[in-house]
Amino acid sequence: xxxxxxxxxxxxxxSSVALMSCGDLQSAIPTPAATPETIAPSLSSTPASPxxxxxxxxxxxxxxxxxxxxxxxxxxxxxxxxRFALLxxxxxxxxxxxxxxxxxxDCSTQRNLSEEGRQQAIRIGEAFRxxxxxxxxxxxxxxxxxxxxxxxxxxxxxxxxPPLNSFFGDRSKTDEQTAQxxxxxxxxxxxxxxxxxxxxxxxxxxxDIFPRSGEAVVIEIGADNLLTILGQIPIx
Length: 236
Description:
By secondary structure, the chain is an alpha/beta fold. It has helices spanning 2-28, 69-76, 115-130, 144-153, 174-186, 200-207, and strands at 59-62, 83-89, 135-140, 158-160, 192-198, 216-221, 226-233. The chain has a domain at 59-93 and 107-233: Rossmann fold, CATH 3.40.50.1240.
């Protein structure tokens, strides 16, 4: 019996030593290096300076109420109490886009108004005056066909406004310029009508409406960063 107990104790001691040795061996075995697929995402793996995203300056909604052009003109006659913007596509200028040698400061390198377009711009201005629409400001793209449209409308001093410039040839500017126009509208705290002469791509980006040359999209500037698309006036 004495020999048996002694043997048992010896076996137990040997087993403990063996287990400890196995543990040491396991800890000494190197683990495989982590691959990119096995690395868990962490804060340290994100860029220190992420690229900023362009955010719209306003909430834009389309009015559920369908209004005729005359109903829209009637609303604009209430501008002494409310704030409106008219985004007008420049008058008729045959062609699409601009020539390869386009230069902003040289009208001879651009698409320009035809004689029909010049007369159309005059008639647009007459449509405002015949309805006694009081225009508070007139802004225009720096493109010559827009500036000439605005000048021939003769509704007030024309202010060149770069965010209204065409981005037909560079769509990467769409979000930035659209947000700038929205922000400008939200900053108009005085009641009245603001006329903005621009291009089809710009107007469509903001309103989701595809105007023809000389047509206008009517927007009401509301509270809480809200711009409401009221409808379209096919001026001529």
